[in-house]
Amino acid sequence: MAQQIDEVVVTGRRVSEAAVAIGTDEPTATVSITRDALLSAPAGITGLKMLESLPGFNVQSNDPLGMYEFGNSVSVRAFSFTQIGFLLDDVPMGRSDQFGGSPIYRYVDNENLARVQASSGAGDVSLPSYASLGTIVSYYTTAPAETFGGSASLTFGSDSLFRNFLRVDTGEHDGWSAYIARSDIQSNLWRGEGDINREHIEGKIRYQFDGGAEITFQGVYNDYFDYDSPAITKAQYEGPPDQFGRRGRFFPYLHYVPVLPVTSPGITYSNTAYNQYYKQAINSRTDYLWALTAKTPLGENVNLSATAYYEDKQGYGVSPEAYATSLTSYNAQRLILSGLTAPRGLQYGLSTINGERKGVSVNGEWRVANHSLQTGLWYEDDDYHRTQARYNHEGGNPDGAPLLNEPVHLQRNYVSTRQSTQFFLKDVISLLDDRLKLDVGFKGLWVDYEITGYRNPGDYIARRQPTLTAKWEDSFLPQVGAVYNLTDREQVFASYSENMALPRGADDVFSAASPTVPAPDPETAKNWELGIRTNRPTFNASLVAYQTSFANRLQSFASVVPGSTTTETFFQNVGEVDAYGAEFSGQWKPELLGGRIYFNTNLSYNHAEFQDNYTTVVSGAPTTVAIAGKIVPDFPEWVFQGGVTFEPTDWALFNLSARHISSRYTNFINTESVDGYTVWNAYLDIGELGTGPLSHLKFRLNVDNIFDEDYLGTITPTTTGLATFRPGPPRSVQLTLTAEF
User: Fold this and answer.
1) Complete edge-to-edge strand list for the sheet that includes strand 30-34
2) Distance CA 132, CA 469 (A)
């Protein structure tokens, strides 16, 4: 009977294995997406957008696949995208900033993933991250196959989408095995002119020794280029057409250079509205990641693992600047800096980035009696270089060639470094004949930060290249958890954890004001959880209640610099955010129709609110901004996802699902909000048609946003003003043909 329980629980080709899905034996709220569930998503979907299928995650994206990097946002409990820790296998991804960071969606293809595991409130104390305030998401890639083979797929879809994917596995030979996979995706923007292009390569080599030891070397290459689409206000979304006839969800950048009135005599392209031309909004990134992992048993009761990794990144972004703005900045610098040229019209704003990130982590485990003692150390060095300047176009024309030999004014040229060290110690204690498991541990985190160079235009004007340093540390961040088996099928679990994180957007924090502005305190959080999970032959579920206190939330606003009478806008603490709520996740495969129909659902309630007011300066006078008791913007109270799957035969499957996000506030003072919305999706999967050649072919049809729901998705929140948004994508269709060999 025990063996039956392990195997029968809610199986289906597109439903996650129960024990993994609901986090069996985990002391925290931990849920997973397994490989079959990952492969049901549209081909090319990013690893970040896949998180929307997990309870509590409010994921917003600008396009159906989540490809446009600056259109993505995530919130969960009290935390946003840059306060979540991400790992790929044993490699921490560092900060998730789109400009200069290492967001997870650049480093994975779904076809190469074994599973995605998320702890929405308290990631295990052993996981390395200086970004996480509790939430940890781990992506695990597949091992090389034991036999030679591979797969290839072609995808066609809406907006001229074309994607190809190829993976080849060598099979195992005298302990060696490997695979290499490549994908290429191209698509037009659904909103406006321009396209998205991405080439992605992943590979892995593994050698297995006799006795259980193994060494794995893996690499990722990602080359990405896209044109931006604009963020818009509610007035642009709902109101009358603007001067170019634009309004609503399809509000684009212009695909042509308009003829506009001259606003500065003698300067043809002086009108500010020339910044709406689409070729002035571009992003390009090239990333490499290499990792070497060794795992070995040292006797029967001791295991040791170590991972060393190296990342290289480079890229650029283009944004426009109006003539009047450039002229003011040019006049401020022209008598100080040599080599500047007066602006000709619209300016070509070029930002470049490059950097290296390298680190090593070592973990050990010793099992003795009813204890599993674990300890580990992680060190990372992240070096990042950014430049920013404005250049002329040929003739000042937005469509003219950029004249990189004619800088108009300079804005940034700095290097920032982060040196992070984390140590953890943990004991997993089994009691009461293994019915009770206690996790008791702590970690220490030390982050040294330095920025040097020209941080902003004011540094150029003041002829200074300051070096600013900061250190954030906490040598005791405890985590305590427990799992108790009520029966062979039910568990209760509880946890408490404390976390500290590097201030979000540290480079911006130290670039926005003069060198005399003090470093902010680190962001910190305390997380409590209490839950129950069940794993039955036709039903499994997890229910958790939580409370989170997040302190030292940072926001940029005007204030008097401490120790002076000068007012500047810089990042400061706006107090505490408290969140509480509940998350439910379940799957049910009734005996109805012979088990051919099964259901899954996630339902989350989250209440996140500010606990303190803050004081800013308006027109020279101190002004209190009353946000205590206000709801944190972009945090919906209700998130629901549910689906039904019908599997009439062994070779056909149909799924229909819905996702609902409740209304959200868009600013700190809750004077603006957006309505909730519901999106319906479906897919049809046909394949494995008996024996012969067709048994290796699969066909999948995905339709997202079936009823073409028109809604505002990604929000860029503000403190007291009106926010900007990115509309959600319209109905999209994908056809994917996959062959295995």
Assistant:
1) 30-34, 113-119, 136-141, 85-88, 91-92
2) 21
Q: What Cα–Cα distance (Å) separates residue 612 from each residue in 280, 500, 550, 629?
A: 40, 20, 12, 8
Other Cβ atoms closer than 10 A to 178 = 20
Above pLDDT 70, what percent of the chain?
Answer: 95
pLDDT confidence band for 2 (50 / 70 / 90): very low
Contacts of 327 (CB under 8 A, 6+ apart): 264, 342, 343
- Report how far residue 333's alpha carbon sits from residue 458's, in angstroms, rounded to the nearest whole number: 9
C-alpha atoms less than 13 angstroms from C-alpha of 554 in its C-beta half-sphere? 23
pLDDT tens string 309-364: 999 999 999 999 999 999 999 999 999 999 999 999 999 999 999 999 999 999 99
Six-digit token string for 176 = 């060696």
Element (H, E) at 524: strand 523-536
- For residues 654 and 621, is the Cβ–Cβ distance under 8 A? no
DSSP string, 282-335: EEEEEEEEEEEEEEEESSSSEEEEEEEEEEEEEEEEEEEE-HHHHHHHHHHHTT
164: pLDDT strictly greater than 90: yes
Name the one residue in this structure whose structure tokens are 């979540």. Answer: 84
What's the confidence (pLDDT) of residue 64?
A: 87
Contact (CB, 8 A) for 688 and 674: no
Q: Which DSSP category does 401 fall into?
A: P
Beta strands across the sheet bearing 58-60: 58-60, 73-76, 79-80
Q: Of 340, 373, 43, which Cα lies nearest the Cα of 183?
A: 43
| pLDDT on residue 563 | 65
192, 262, 260, 183: which is closest to 220 by C-alpha? Answer: 183
Place of tokens 């973990």: 363
d(CA 624, CA 615): 4
- Determine contact, residues 583/120, Cβ cutoff 8 Å: yes
As a whole number of angstroms, the distance between CA 409 and CA 740 comes to 55
pTM: 0.93
Tokens of 376: 């580990």
Q: Which of 227, 215, 141 is nearest to 176 (CA)?
A: 215
- DSSP code, position 93: -
Whether the CB-CB separation of 724 and 231 falls below 8 Å is answered with yes
Nearest to 55 by CA among 105, 109, 121: 121
DSSP, collapsed to helix, strand or coil, labels residue 395 as helix
CA distances from 160 to 155, 197, 707 (A): 10, 12, 20
Q: 179 burial class (0-12, 13-18, 19+ CB within 10 angstroms)?
A: buried
Q: 10 Å Cβ neighbour count for 307? A: 21
Question: pLDDT by residue (tens digit) across 105-148?
Answer: 899 999 999 999 999 888 899 999 999 998 999 999 999 999 99
Q: Beta strand 732-740 with 149-157: parallel, antiparallel or unpaired?
A: antiparallel
Q: Any idea what DSSP says for residue 518?
A: P
CA–CA separation, 91 vs 126, rounded Å?
Answer: 12
Distances (CA, A) of 721 to 174, 249, 633: 65, 21, 12
CA distance 424 to 446: 12
DSSP 136-173: EEEEEEPPPPSSSEEEEEEEEETTTEEEEEEEEE---B
**What tokens were used for 191?**
């909103």
Quickly state the pLDDT bin for 6 (edges 50, 70, 90): very low
From residue 504, alpha-carbon distances to 83, 354, 500 in Å are: 7, 19, 11
AA identity, residue 491: Q
